[in-house]
Design the sequence.
């Protein structure tokens, strides 16, 4: 075998390195983008499958599948939502706004932005006291006040008005909801290599 | 049972809350006038009760400008506090030993804008189920005494909702997180907004642990040793672990919801998250 030795000019080498890096970067970003989209879709589906979410989505006729009320009534009526309310929508909008961006520099860093628990709490006001969050209340406890207000018949959830059973706040079992959910997905998104999680 | 952390937390929080509202909001009015005799079955036989038209007088001498009574006028002459004359700040009255029911009793005092109570009742019980005697701080009170013992409004009801520990540092130090709630029942929107605004600004405030033995009130509603200052009490316990207000959220019952209630009160909520770092396993 004969070995031929040749001198490639530095300018040619530099251009080759630059062009190959560009191609590689596009490929990496494409893979990261796909991975992000998969986790984002999984996050939204996972949120929609939480028992709290499902019970509230089912509205005033739901049964207490989350077990937070020991099987009596349902969360939608207990919290005191009006029949036309869609309390889950603001959370879905925030989760849907999760995004990814890529750096223009020489590194391969990506920034992923997902909603914080605090921003979700801000977007989920109690129907009868807007400074309070019903989503936070699921984690810290909710009084039975909304149920009583709805029972008094000012056009809130029908089930609340019709129910004759007393459901007191003492009967509400607080449970993990948004905070644990967001923590879980910060970890999931962080598993995408070279990414930086930015919580808005 | 000996005193536990929860007992200390409750006592410390209530003393801090009362002082903070009075000091930051100057939430009191100075009053003077006649006291009225009434029979009280629950009272020690030694004493006769002469009630003012207001209950929950200010007993904290660290509140500048507030008239803290040290005695009352009986038939025109000033009688200082003694073993035969007690001042029941909680029920707004003087307890006088051996006084005739026809005695003329009068005095000066500062009344709190809000009565402060600690309760285990839920919000629905407090707001919907219970009926309260109004003891207006805006309109002139009736020319008579206010009944003792029962809760009156305007008032703020404090309650402890939950407590849990989370790891803080190596060596067994935990952060104990306490959820305290306050239901504010005000006579008008101005009063409600004032109370909520004061406590919204209590974010990042600290207060010391004060045991029950440091509580200034006697079984008669008077102050121990004849005087009480929260500032002095706080300094006595400043080497004790501090409570820290990690988060505070205020909110108001919407007008729509308020109109569905049988009473005419303006209602708000203050949700506190209070932290303290502790070695509770030692």
Sequence:
């Amino acid at each position: 075998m004969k070995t031929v030795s040749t001198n490639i000019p530095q300018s040619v080498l530099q251009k080759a390195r630059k062009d190959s890096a560009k191609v590689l970067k596009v490929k990496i970003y494409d893979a990261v983008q796909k991975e992000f989209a998969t986790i984002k879709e999984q996050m939204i589906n996972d949120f929609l499958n939480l028992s709290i979410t499902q019970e509230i989505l089912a509205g005033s006729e739901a049964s207490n599948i989350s077990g937070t009320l020991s099987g009596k009534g349902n969360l939608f009526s207990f919290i005191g939502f009006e029949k036309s309310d869609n309390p889950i929508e603001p959370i879905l909008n925030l989760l849907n706004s999760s995004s990814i961006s890529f750096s223009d520099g020489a590194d391969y860093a990506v920034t992923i932005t997902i909603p914080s628990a605090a921003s979700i709490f801000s977007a989920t006001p109690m129907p009868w006291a807007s400074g309070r969050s019903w989503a936070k209340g699921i984690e810290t406890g909710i009084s039975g006040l909304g149920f009583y207000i709805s029972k008094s018949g000012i056009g809130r959830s029908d089930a609340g008005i019709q129910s004759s059973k007393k459901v007191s706040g003492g009967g509400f079992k607080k449970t993990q909801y948004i905070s644990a959910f967001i923590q879980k997905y910060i970890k999931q998104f962080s598993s995408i290599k070279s990414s930086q999680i930015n919580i808005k | 049972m000996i005193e536990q952390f929860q007992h200390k937390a409750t006592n410390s929080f209530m003393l801090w809350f009362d002082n903070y509202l009075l000091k930051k909001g100057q939430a009191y009015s100075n009053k003077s006038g006649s006291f009225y005799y009434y029979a009280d079955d629950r009272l020690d036989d030694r004493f006769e009760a002469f009630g003012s038209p207001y209950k929950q007088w200010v007993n904290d001498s660290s509140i500048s400008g507030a008239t803290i009574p040290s005695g009352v006028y009986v038939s025109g002459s000033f009688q200082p506090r003694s073993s035969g004359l007690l001042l029941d700040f909680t029920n707004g009255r003087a307890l006088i030993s051996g006084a005739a029911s026809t005695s003329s009793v009068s005095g000066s005092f500062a009344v709190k804008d809000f009565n402060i109570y600690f309760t285990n009742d839920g919000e629905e019980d407090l707001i919907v189920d219970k009926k309260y005697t109004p003891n207006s701080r805006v309109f002139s009170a009736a020319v008579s005494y206010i009944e003792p013992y029962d809760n009156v409004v305007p008032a703020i009801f404090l309650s402890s909702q939950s407590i849990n520990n989370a790891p803080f540092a190596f060596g067994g130090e935990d952060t104990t997180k306490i959820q305290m709630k306050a239901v504010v029942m005000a006579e008008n929107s101005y009063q409600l907004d004032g109370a909520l605004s004061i406590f919204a600004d209590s974010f990042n405030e600290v207060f010391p642990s004060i045991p029950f033995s440091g509580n200034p009130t006697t079984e008669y509603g008077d102050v121990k040793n004849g005087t009480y200052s929260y500032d002095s009490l706080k300094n006595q316990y400043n080497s004790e672990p501090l409570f820290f207000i990690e988060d505070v959220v205020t909110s108001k019952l919407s007008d729509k919801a308020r109109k569905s209630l049988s009473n005419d009160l303006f209602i708000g909520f203050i949700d506190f998250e209070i932290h303290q770092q502790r070695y509770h396993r030692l």
Summary: The CA atoms of residues 33 and 119 of chain B lie 31 Å apart. Chain B has a mean pLDDT of 93. Chain B has one domain: 5-278. Chain B touches chain A at residues 122-125, 127-128, 161-162, 179, 249-254, 256-257, 259-261, 269, 271 (CB under 8 Å).
